[in-house]
Amino acid sequence: MSAILRMKKADLTAYAIEHMSRVINYVKRNRAEGTNSNAEHSRWRYSLMNWVNDPLKR
Question: One Pfam annotation, family name (predicted)?
Fold first, then answer.
C-alpha cells in the first residue's frame, strides 16, 4: 500500500486505483462501525492500522 501512495498520479495502474478504492471503502465502513470497548487496545483499531489508518489520530 505504501508503494502506491508514493506513485505519481500519471503512473497509477488500473490495479492500483482499484486497490486504493477497496482500501478507502474498507476504512470508511470500519470507522463508521466504531467500537464500544477501549479503542486504544481494540481489535478494531489494530485492524484499521493494518490498512494504514489509525482511528485515534485525526
Answer: DUF3140
The reply to whether 35 falls in a domain is yes
* Domain assignment of residue 56, yes or no: no
**pTM of the predicted model as reported, rounded to 2 decimal places:** 0.62
Higher-pLDDT residue of 52, 23: 23
Domain annotation covers residue 57: no
Q: Which structural domain, as residue segments, surrounds residue 34? A: 2-50
d(CA 39, CA 17): 30
Nearest CA to 1 out of 50, 54, 40, 56 is that of 50
The tally of domains found in the chain comes to 1
Q: Which residue has the cell 500519471?
A: 10
